[in-house]
Prior knowledge:
The chain is an alpha/beta fold. It is built from 5 helices and 5 strands; from the N terminus they run E-E-H-E-H-E-H-E-H-H.
Amino acid sequence: MxxxxxxxxxxxxSLAELADAKLGVQVGTTSLDAVDEVIEPSAQPQVxxxxxxxxxxxxxxxxxxxxxDLPTAFYLTAAEIPEARITGQFDxxxxxxxxxxLAKDSELxxxxxxxxxxxxxxxxxxxxxxxxxxGQAGAPELR
Length: 143
């Protein structure tokens, strides 16, 4: 969830506080399902054709906040909309999976798989994820 720093929504600490906000989402993404099923807004979210239209709607205050995936939110606040902030993150239906890409039949695949298994079983992967993609990185969790 992104909102302009000057907007009341920027200070939201719960999903309930966002139910009456004018929300925007991009068509063809999981954001609409996330808004409908998790936030349950009092008004239908505005749906935009592409990310440019969604960003423009936030910048021009046609919407109070937009819902995008977390990596996109980090990029938008750093590069395209520095006057916005990540209001928070929340679990969406289906969620997102992360992955690594290696060349097909790469000799590195077994080593990478083993390293990931060790990071996950030790809890270090969760710590890294939270540091760089979670609350510590500026994306508090909204419930």
